[in-house]
């Protein structure tokens, strides 16, 4: 055992993953953030305000919802959705945007800077910053901005300043790098708002803490409903909803935790986003984690029909949970995810995002192998409104 | 900081010892290995030395140079497009060393290519290529323990970076594998950004000197020979990167790389800085 734990315990380490791989100029900024977060998290008044905003501004708690007509054939386990798609402004991203803006305000900062892929984190940040009277700068890749025109308009309506990044993959990865550069030059006034539990310590811990509300609610609702789930499924982009949901079930070893990754088109040799199952250990965006990278250590582009899943890095906590075999990974193709979203809409009147379509497709596949008295939970991070044009393309 | 005795003295230490005797300040520059091509890059390294540059930082091309501003990001892309990467940068240094065994070479870049190779293999290959030190933009000393051990085994230094807001414990660490000089960054932000005032630079250098016995070199935001002169009056060395890359790119718009006059024009640009330092 001692041999496995070669590295000494450091803050922000999840097994051998995590850490603080940043420009030295950011270390004091991260230290200040960590201290402020610990102080706030132990302050009941912070929690009172956070809970109030989560309930009244974000729209929590979100329900668990059965979808009996969805499964393709009779038999198999019951599928239950955790419906964060019913929150306002940015789906589950609103949970941590509210938490981080509250913290930034408490630290005396006047603005936030963030990045967005699918547009959801940007919307959550823009809306929350507006609520707090804070400035908000959002970086978004050219490709994502073109695909998510409605999200772009919504962010601007909330008064955010949008910076479109025509660099590298022209998607989330390039936007994140640009946002971090902005933050390095403005860390005395701006808080970097992380959309996902990625990046240097304390971001993974902090975002996971703000997203843990999903898991806590779900656990309580399952107990109230008399359901003991056989499995919990969540699609992995940055990993915010996945960590949020899994956090309450990690110690229940009888419950399978399934991280669903984007396989892209599924054609041999084509780009994908399955870095938890096919990535290699590396250092990316501030942490040691599993990354899509070549033998020379160059970061490879990720691809998925779901903009929120196309990111080459992963949350260090998830990398560790996969490494320890507590979390299973499966991959779902673009067409399987789209088919699942469309069939759910047609059979149940619920339009989920393409990210959730990946989790739904994987859950249905596994549920078929289970008994009817069993149940699985599927995370629905946000609604499918943003993906209407992509869903519609093949008609 | 402690210095260990290796088979040969590290070229960075030798350079500073020589400059101290000559009462001169070090002039260092930066180029991305393989930008715009392998051959041009090699020719540029030679020109640097002929123009009086004392130490060369060589960036190994990386897909995501997060600490760098637009100029160096583009240089990374050009080098990658020409097939550049960490392995090719080792080859470039090996080729340079065939003719020059004196000028210190410092590799500069990001952690992922290093970890992909493995710390020990990286240090071994870097030493074999005639490299004297490394600057890893996103590998803070908090995370560098295993890398430092590997570097120390091969007689290489990791150059500590000191930003104005950084606590001494995060740059003034005394352990094998750390050395060469202290890279003092007087401004907060990516490369190629705004410059610090002369007072701020002097204050930053003074603070570094109180904490560390290594020579102090200043980089980030040194854009003109006049600014370089100001820095040289307070520090042991001046690092000019973005301003020179911009000058080369501008020159490429004026004349083809193959023009025999190109390298001499490059040398003129460098000479203006050299004269001021």
Question: Could you characterize the architecture of this molecule?
Answer:
Chain A: It comes from Martelella mediterranea DSM 17316. Chain A: This is tryptophan synthase. Chain A: Belongs to the TrpB family. The complex is a heterodimer of chains A (395) and B (277). The model of chain A is unreliable at 1-8 (pLDDT under 50). The longest helix of chain A is centred in the middle third of the chain and has 22 residues, at 203-224. In chain A, strands 3-4-14-9-10-13 form a six-stranded mixed β-sheet, with helices on both faces. In chain A, helix 3 packs parallel to helix 4 and helix 4 runs parallel beside helix 6. Chain A has 14 helices and 14 strands. Chain A has a domain at 56-90 and 204-391: Rossmann fold, CATH 3.40.50.1100. Chain A is an alpha/beta fold and 395 residues long. Chain A is globular, with a radius of gyration of 19 Å. Chain A is 41% helix and 17% strand. In chain A, helix 9 (240-246) links the parallel strand 9 (231-235) and strand 10. The mean pLDDT of chain B is 92. The radius of gyration of chain B is 17 Å and the shape is globular. Chain B has eleven helices and nine strands. In chain B, helix 10 runs antiparallel to helix 11. By secondary structure, chain B is α/β, with parallel strands linked by helices. Chain B has one domain (11-276): Aldolase class I (TIM Barrel). The interface between A and B is large, with 37 and 39 residues.
């Amino acid at each position: 055992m001692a041999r496995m734990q070669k590295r000494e315990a450091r803050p922000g380490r999840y097994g051998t993953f995590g850490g603080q791989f940043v420009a030295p100029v950011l270390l004091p900024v991260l230290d200040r953030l960590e201290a402020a977060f610990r102080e706030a998290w132990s302050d009941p008044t912070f929690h009172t305000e956070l809970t109030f905003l989560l309930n009244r501004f974000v729209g929590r708690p979100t329900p668990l919802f059965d979808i009996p007509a969805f499964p393709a054939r009779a038999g198999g386990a019951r599928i239950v959705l955790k419906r964060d798609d019913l929150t306002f402004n940015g789906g589950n991203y609103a949970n941590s945007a509210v938490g981080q803006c509250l913290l930034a305000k408490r630290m005396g900062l006047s603005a936030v800077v963030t990045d967005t892929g699918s547009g959801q984190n940007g919307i959550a940040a823009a809306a929350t910053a507006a609520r707090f009277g804070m400035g908000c700068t959002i970086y978004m890749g050219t490709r994502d901005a073109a695909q998510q025109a409605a999200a772009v308009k919504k962010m601007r309506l909330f008064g955010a300043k949008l910076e479109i990044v025509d660099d590298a993959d022209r998607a989330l990865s390039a936007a994140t790098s640009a946002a971090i550069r902005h933050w390095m030059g403005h860390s005395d006034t701006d808080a970097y708002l992380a959309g996902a539990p990625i990046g240097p310590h304390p971001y993974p811990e902090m975002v996971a803490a703000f997203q843990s509300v999903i898991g806590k609610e779900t656990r309580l609702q399952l107990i109230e409903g008399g359901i003991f789930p056989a499995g919990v499924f969540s699609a992995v982009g940055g990993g915010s909803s996945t960590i949020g949901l899994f956090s309450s079930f990690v110690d229940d070893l009888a419950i399978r935790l399934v991280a669903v990754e984007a396989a892209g088109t599924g054609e041999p040799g084509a780009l994908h986003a399955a870095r938890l199952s096919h990535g290699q250990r590396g250092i990316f965006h501030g942490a040691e984690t599993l990354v899509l990278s070549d033998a020379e250590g160059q970061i490879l582009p990720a691809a998925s029909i779901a903009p929120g899943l196309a990111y080459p890095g992963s949350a260090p906590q998830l990398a560790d949970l996969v490494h320890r075999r507590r979390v299973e990974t499966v991959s779902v193709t673009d067409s399987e995810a789209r088919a699942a979203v469309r069939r759910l809409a047609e059979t149940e009147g619920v339009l989920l995002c393409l990210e959730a379509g990946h989790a739904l497709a994987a859950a249905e596949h596994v549920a078929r192998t289970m008994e009817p008295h069993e149940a699985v939970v599927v995370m629905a991070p946000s609604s499918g409104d943003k993906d209407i044009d992509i869903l519609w393309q093949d008609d | 900081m402690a210095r260990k005795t290796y088979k040969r003295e590290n070229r960075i230490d030798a350079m500073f010892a020589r400059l101290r005797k000559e009462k001169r300040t070090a002039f260092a520059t930066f180029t991305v290995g393989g930008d715009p091509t392998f051959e041009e890059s090699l020719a540029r390294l030679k020109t640097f030395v002929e123009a009086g540059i004392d130490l060369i930082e060589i960036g190994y091309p990386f897909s995501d140079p997060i600490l760098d501003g637009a100029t160096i990001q583009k240089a990374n892309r050009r080098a990658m497009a020409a097939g550049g990467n960490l392995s090719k940068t080792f080859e470039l240094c090996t080729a340079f060393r065939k003719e020059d065994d004196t000028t210190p070479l410092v590799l500069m870049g990001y952690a992922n290519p290093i970890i992909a190779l493995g710390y020990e293999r990286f240090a071994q290959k870097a030493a074999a290529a005639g490299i004297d030190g490394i600057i890893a933009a996103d590998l803070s000393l908090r995370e560098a323990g295993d890398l430092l051990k590997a570097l120390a085994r091969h007689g290489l230094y990791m150059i500590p970076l000191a930003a104005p807001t950084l606590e001494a414990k995060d740059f003034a660490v005394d352990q094998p594998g750390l050395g060469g000089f202290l890279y003092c960054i007087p401004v907060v932000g990516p490369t190629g950004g705004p410059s610090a005032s002369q007072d701020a630079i002097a204050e930053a250098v003074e603070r570094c000197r109180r904490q560390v016995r290594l020579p102090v070199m200043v980089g980030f935001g040194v854009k003109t020979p006049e600014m370089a002169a100001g820095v040289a009056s307070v520090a042991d060395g001046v690092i000019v990167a973005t301003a020179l890359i911009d000058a080369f790119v501008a020159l490429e718009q004026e004349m083809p790389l193959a023009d025999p006059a190109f390298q001499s024009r490059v040398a003129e640009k460098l000479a203006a800085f050299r004269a001021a330092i």
